Amino acid sequence: MSQDYTDMWKGLGLDLDAHNALLGVLGQGYHDIYLGQENRPESMAYFDFVMAEVHGLRIQELVDEKKVGRKIIGSYCVFVPEEITLAANATLVGLCSGADFAMDEVEKILPRNTCALIKSSFGFKLGKVCPYLESADMVVGENTCDGKKKAYETLGHLVENLYLMDLPQVKSDQGKSLLRSEYFRFKAAVEELTGVAITTESLKQAIQTVNAKRAAIHRLTTLRKADPAPISGLDALLANQVFFYDNPARFTESVHKVCDELEQRIAERKGVFAEKTPRILVSGCPQAVPNWKLPFIVETSGAVIVGEESCVGERGTRNLTDASGETVEEMMAAIVDRYFQVDCAIFTPNPERLAHIEEMVGAYKADGVIHYGLQFCQPYLMESMPVETALKEKGIPCLRLETDYSMADMGQIKTRVEAFIEQLR
Ligand code: BJ8
Fold this sequence. Notes:
Elements: H1 6-11, H2 16-34, H3 45-52, H4 57-67, E1 71-75, H5 82-87, E2 90-94, H6 103-109, H7 116-126, H8 131-135, E3 138-143, H9 146-155, E4 162-166, H10 173-194, H11 200-223, H12 233-242, H13 248-267, E5 279-284, H14 293-299, E6 304-309, H15 314-317, H16 328-339, H17 351-363, E7 368-374, H18 378-393, E8 398-403, H19 410-424
Parallel strand pairs: 1-2, 1-3, 3-4, 5-6, 5-7, 7-8
This protein binds Double cubane cluster.
């Protein structure tokens, strides 16, 4: 880290010993997984820097923003519209939830058979180790899966300003009306928090900022169609993870720099792996920082990941918001239209997700799909079965995995992944 941030962490109320332990594990994991990769694009150095400063410089920026009156809003879901927060002079940060922490404490207040993502969010709170969470002036919880919606009832006792957003479960007219009214209610809550009324100009600017971020990621994903793959799935996942908490303009610029380099690589037929390396699409639950387990296994077993059908991936970023509206109401309608297309497995029925998986297999020339399910995640585990059946009917090999954040099953998963890759050759 570029400087000593101890006083800042103390000021946020972090448990310094626990926090140091977390940083140690995170730093070691990143070092072993990321810095051990061969043929990485040089421009990924920016993301190495971001990860080195993940609890340093970026938090300092957030603390500095707070000093001049800007508010920080934390979110656990891609349904929370960044456009609205930015337009009201607030910064949105994703609360990552990608590692086990303080599990003994967590299992005193949540059932053991709760998904790792939810448990992680509680562990970070109970262990007082997440500076993003501790700097947030508002934390948004959403009624999505049963696990999350019930866990937020408990989280409300631990977090000072937990705002609950109701979300539809059916893609019907009533569902869309619910989303519309919830987004207007959220807009009012954010305006009240910041004391800033959203205007036509501020909302248009915010939509353009978020669209630019997504467009940069779209450029990156398009370049992953090349064979040999110009970038690893690990690095592409990292960019998708950093999407949630970096400064938007700086993130956009940095992704474009990576893309410039990838275009050059493609022109020179230079890849991270040899041409004709088996290509995998990963589909399923979000993989939040520092959950790099599956791509690490896949990419050290002779295959490359070319796409993520995931909220930390294309499900979260694929659509832009129409910025052409001339009033706040028109642009709010465009925001509703954009988010209502997110095909999370909490929706029933959810045929759009299957169609998107098949479309991605074709677009990224994937040889097979690995369905990534977190244990106890009913929505995605339930959907994994029809997904597998439909893919197999189309002759697309599919491997369904169910795991958590522990490393205990690494060997077992590696064995299954290796056998799957062998089948693809
Ligand atoms: S829009 S995927 S970010 S809800 S893994 S907590 S579903 S039991 S994360 Fe999600 Fe929003 Fe949907 Fe995306 Fe529940 Fe499953 Fe756990 Fe999950």
